[in-house]
Specification:
heterodimer; A: mainly alpha; ABC transporter involved in vitamin B12 uptake, BtuC; 2 domains; 13 helices; B: alpha/beta; Rossmann fold; four-stranded antiparallel sheet; 10 helices
């Protein structure tokens, strides 16, 4: 393709027009990333339940709104459903001794069927649309500014609640469990209970985000949660890197949480730019996976750059020479 | 205060790695006893402490702390009675949490953890005073992450945490073994102080016979899952390293020349 023609075909106006939508979507996924943060960072568990519980949240919200529930009540119900999904993973892990990562995969796998049931039983409905003209939705892409405002409000509430909860005795016990399980037991903490609690709360957040996404896009879809763990991780990592860059590791917990939502926003703005550049959208997941892999590898590679066998060998050789 | 009644524990039973770690162990501590525990590698010292702490269930026998039978209680529930310091300085504290948060976790040992604030302002003052007694300057950096502290600082903090909520029993599992000699001496002195100030009943495992003799009011020696020597009071005060080696040879029936190997 002729490069000049390619650049000529890019309309900066389209990019600017697209940004608010990316921001709204990013906030919704940022809330999901808060859930991932709870398990991945606070509990030190990579919980793969989320790919299923995100859809569960979307499915519950769509079905209940279709049944005439107000949107906020449907979201609350979705959170309870997510909570239960996390509970199942937690119990599989702590009561049945299944490694956390496998427990999450099992629940996620089972949720595929559960989500189909939620969305219409045996009629095989893999997709439920909720028309924003017919129903009152909290957040919809028909009105992006309003969606951003609602998203920011929910972010503020979520961050406040999580900040409070993880500052309580119980929340501290969850954080201790993730930081040092042996010490936690010695201090009288039932670490199994704390893991189950953490997984449940995390998946409630994820389901909330799924419910918002269903409203935003105007439908729930059986595949809407696919790969959400990776997007969640991307948001967490981008947010943390940015937070450390701005605050030099001195950020409070609440600021940390806010930055994770910002991480989600940045991720979606970048995705918007990538799409605007007319890069093949089929490669988007490959691109995301590479970015997440690189960022996850950074701490390890940094440590290796300071101390490794190769380095030691090179230094030794220099001295001998 | 503590009764270990005929406790047995075998690891990996029925396999080639079968290890009878405790064999019908009996030990009774009075309130205020400070017992030092010595013995060779694999003698069952740590296993005994772990049996008391409830790291795993015992095969036979019972553990009674201050009159209540805790044999059926898991580790986290026994924690209400027990303060512990481990050999590995990294093991006793949560590295990602602040100094004051760690203390607050320990302060709630044995209490229900609800939805009230994790660290209150009044507690902070208490922690500041307690930290000041360590003389490590930690009282000025209570919101620092514990992961930033040195091994000795972390061990001192763990000790403070173990005694913060007065335990019925303090278990010290070679808690100075991983520290440099100067720091080890400081932590040991601090241990003595904590035990004395709070009137704690304590068990301390050590590989250092000199420490075992100079600390506590009672000394026990273990070998092959059993207590082979138990000396207390005046008799212990007069004990020398040579005495210990000789007694070990007598009771265990081991050749003199291997004693050093077994006990050091």
């Amino acid at each position: 393709m002729n490069i000049a023609a390619y650049f000529a075909s890019l309309n900066p106006l389209n990019l600017i027009k697209g940004i608010p939508g990316s921001i709204a979507q990013g906030i919704v996924w940022g809330l999901m990333a808060l859930g991932v943060y709870i398990t991945f960072r606070l509990l030190d568990i990579a919980d793969l339940t989320v790919d299923g519980s995100f859809t569960t949240g979307g499915a519950c919200t769509a079905i209940l709104i279709l049944a005439g529930w107000p949107a906020w009540a449907a979201l609350l119900a979705a959170m309870v459903a997510g909570l239960l999904a996390g509970l199942v993973t937690g119990l599989l892990h702590t009561r049945l001794g299944i490694p956390a990562i496998l427990a999450g995969i099992l629940t996620q796998f089972a949720l595929y069927s559960v989500n189909l049931h939620i969305m219409g039983g045996f009629k095989g409905a893999a997709n439920k649309s909720i028309n924003p003209d017919q129903f009152h939705l909290l957040i919809t892409l028909r009105s992006v500014p309003q969606a951003i405002l609602a998203g920011l409000l929910l972010t503020a509430v979520s961050v406040a609640v999580l900040y409070w909860y993880f500052g309580t005795e119980q929340g501290s016990a969850i954080r201790a469990t993730g930081s040092n399980p042996a010490m936690s037991r010695a201090q009288g903490i039932n670490i199994d209970t704390m893991k189950v609690l953490g997984l449940a709360i995390s998946n409630a957040m994820v389901a909330l985000s799924g419910g918002l996404m269903a409203q935003y896009q105007g439908f729930s879809d059986i595949n809407m949660g696919r790969g959400s763990i990776v997007i969640g991780l991307a948001a967490v990592i981008i947010g943390e890197v940015l937070c450390d860059a701005v605050f030099r590791k001195g950020a409070s917990f609440a600021v940390h949480l806010i930055f994770i939502v910002i991480g989600g926003v940045i991720y979606y703005v970048v995705v918007g730019v990538v799409l605007w550049l007319k890069l093949p959208s089929n490669d988007l997941k490959l691109f995301t996976a590479v970015v997440v892999a690189v960022f996850l590898a950074v701490p390890y590679l940094q440590a290796r750059a300071k101390s490794s066998f190769k380095l030691a060998g090179r230094k030794g050789a220099q001295r001998n020479a | 205060m503590l009764d270990i009644n005929h406790v047995s524990k075998t690891f990996n039973p029925g396999t080639i790695n079968e290890k009878r770690a405790l064999i019908g162990l009996d030990l009774h501590l009075k309130e205020g006893d400070f017992v030092t525990v010595i013995g060779g590698n694999g003698a069952g010292k740590s296993t005994m402490l772990n049996a008391v702490a409830g790291v795993w269930p015992v095969d036979e026998g019972s553990v009674v702390i201050d009159g209540s039978d805790v044999t059926a209680l898991p580790e986290y529930r026994r924690a209400a009675f027990i303060g512990r310091v481990f050999q590995d300085p990294m093991m006793g504290t949560a590295p990602n949490m602040q100094i004051e948060e760690n203390l607050a976790l320990a302060y709630r040992r044995g209490h229900k953890r609800g939805l009230s604030w994790g660290v209150t302002r009044a507690e902070r003052e208490l922690y500041r005073d307690k930290l000041r007694t360590l003389g490590l300057g930690l009282e000025g950096r209570m919101s620092s992450k514990v992961g930033l502290l040195s091994g000795g600082q972390r061990q001192a903090l763990t000790l403070l945490m173990a005694a913060l909520q007065k335990p019925k029993l303090l278990l010290l599992d070679e808690h100075t073994a991983a520290l440099d000699p100067a720091t080890a001496a400081k932590v040991l002195e601090l241990s003595d102080r904590v035990v004395a100030e709070n009137g704690l009943t304590a068990m301390m495992i050590t590989h250092n016979m000199k420490d075992a003799i100079s600390h506590g009011n009672r000394i026990i020696m273990m070998n092959e899952g059993k207590i082979i020597l138990d000396i207390e009071g005046e008799e212990k005060k007069k004990l020398t390293k040579a005495d210990l080696l000789q007694k070990f040879a007598e009771v265990a029936g081991v050749q003199e020349e291997t004693d050093e190997v077994l006990l050091s």
